[in-house]
Amino acid sequence: MPFDLRHAAQKYQSFMDMVLHGLEFAYVHIDDVLVASSDEVKHKNQLTHIFDRFKNLGVFINPDKFVENGIQPLESKVSAVTDFPLPHSQRKL
Predict the structure, then answer these.
(1) 40-57 and 8-19 are packed helices; what angle lies between their axes, rounded to 10 degrees?
(2) 8 near 28, Cβ under 8 Å?
């Protein structure tokens, strides 16, 4: 990625669109790849296809980012909001 990061998101989107070109079941959204399947067997086959394509093109994926039950926020981000001290005066509000 070049040092000029103003266009990093667009470059990433274009790159991932190229990587997943022709896969009607895969969608790139910001920095996520969403896979739409009608059943579990088909889903596993589609994931295998995507992972093979990533491997062949040298695309690294971070397994720590995988979530089983859909899109979920990072716990560290959630705790930053839930652990924020409550205001005890109108001024602090």
Answers:
(1) 110
(2) no
